[in-house]
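The aim of this short unit is practical: by the end, you should be able to scan a pair of folded records and say something sensible about each. We start with the first protein, listed as its amino acid sequence and then its structure tokens.
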Amino acid sequence: MSNPQHLTYSKEHEWLTAVEDGVATVGITAYAADALGDVVYVQLPDVGQTVTAGETCGELESTKSVSDLYTPATGEIVEVNQAVVDDPALVNSAPFAEGWLFKIRLDGAPEGLLTAEEYAAHTGA
């Protein structure tokens, strides 16, 4: 699966949508989902929680390992995807669609994110 051009990416394998009314959506990339294997548990940050770019804000557990979830931007969590908590397999089956993780009200412009081409070069995929 190629990386959608309209998203930006972190080196920790999260994606971020364009900002709409100060809010962006965050998920993990198909590359990360493939590396994790079958995701069986998702722990997301709490609505109202303030998160800082580059810091952990949850975790993903798969049949292979447990991985920290990092936030690609600083801001306040305004929504979490309950469908992913209820059915973690969505992270694998639709990482760029129904498998999104949370929405964040940004505190300023995100920094250090990669374009789709830069992320592909970063992962070698």
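Turning to the second protein, read its sequence before its tokens, just as you did above.
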Amino acid sequence: MFSHVMLGANDVQASKKFYDAILGAMGYKPGVIDDKGRCFYFTKTGVFAITKPINGEPACNGNGSTIGFAAKDPAQADAWHAAGIANGGSACEAAPGVREGAGGKLYLAYLRDPSGNKICALYRVE
């Protein structure tokens, strides 16, 4: 359904360090900076990118917005979370763990990136 996700960042280099660490914990290659200073992570199924906002205003998080990254298992979600904390992110929500809801049992780990965007790693528990 989605071709790409792009998030605003006030400091692209700090955000690249953070996303290189958390996405690296999931087996992805480091981001690539283009000639406009944007950072891209390319996969077979889509693109994740970070950029300074083109309108010149400061980047800010979307209240109620969350970007989820698929984890292959709870251990990968935990490694993702630990890498984020160690690289400029901050914990939010409850500690990583299983939650039950309309979508069934989910293993979730939440973080705020260096610009305050809320992200999570998600593993669907069978």
